[in-house]
Amino acid sequence: MSDTDEIEDSSAPLIEHLAELRTRLIHSAIAFIIGMVICFTVWNPIFNFLTDPLCSTMAERGQADCGLILIKLQEGFFVAVSISLFGGLVLSFPYISYQLWRFVAPGLYKNEKSAFLPFLFASPIMFLLGASFAFYVVMPLAFDFFLGFQQSGNVGETGVEASIDFQGSVQEYLRLSIKFIVAFGLCFQLPVLLTLMGKAGLVSSQGLADVRKYAVVGILVLAALVTPPDVITQVILFVVVYGLYEISIQLVKRVETKREADLRAQGLWFDDEDEEAEDELMAEFDEDEDDDGDDDPDGGPDDDPEDDPGMVETGR
User: Fold this and answer.
1) How far apart (Å, rounded) are the C-alpha atoms in residues 58 and 54?
2) Which end of the chain has the least Cβ crowding within 10 Å, N or C?
């Protein structure tokens, strides 16, 4: 077989994988476009739903007017496009995940499929929990904090107090809401990610516990970056993510315990005491070999005639 034939045979599987990847990407793109079109046709109800935390908070503060303004002429159109893009991704995500699984699954063993499949289901569930926590808990608290900087105008004997009223931009509010939802949704992926890494043997529960102080600093930095500059939201995000980190340690420990039980059942698990005993035996064996080597450096009987007078006499 010539070198050209070998190259063609080796490139055939690669071409098949690329064709399969193209098919999966096309199906995912079509699903995303369909979801985007659906959300574009109903962007007004979606926007009304997203403004519920703001309107509820303003109503509790006695502000009945929950109006947002369009600063730019084209802002309303781009708001509708942004909602359709975000909503289309949410609607099509299950199908996109399915296409990803169909592409990856043929290259996995049966045990790898059974190990990876639960995380594929847990990831969107945890994202939904994080998004719901942000929408129903964090956003009302954050908006109440921001709206607290308003003041009513007053002209009195002591002076004039200027009125500060909230007149929010539609696009800015939408950007802030999506930032909250995405940030908390991604942070809730921490147990899924660390547990998957623990199952793959990339991290251990003891290692995660040892770097706990560094994780605290990293979570604080993350809370400062992904949340607005208010202390309440940052503290809430820190408490939630740190709690998820501790839960991840327990999940990784559970994975390690299960792995150890399986290896013990197969007779493939060795305790540290067994390894230490084996090391001591190997060390004693090496010492015995060294002693034998010192008695006879050449590794054989001492046949030098000059060192044996009897052999010298016989030779004469």
Assistant:
1) 6
2) C
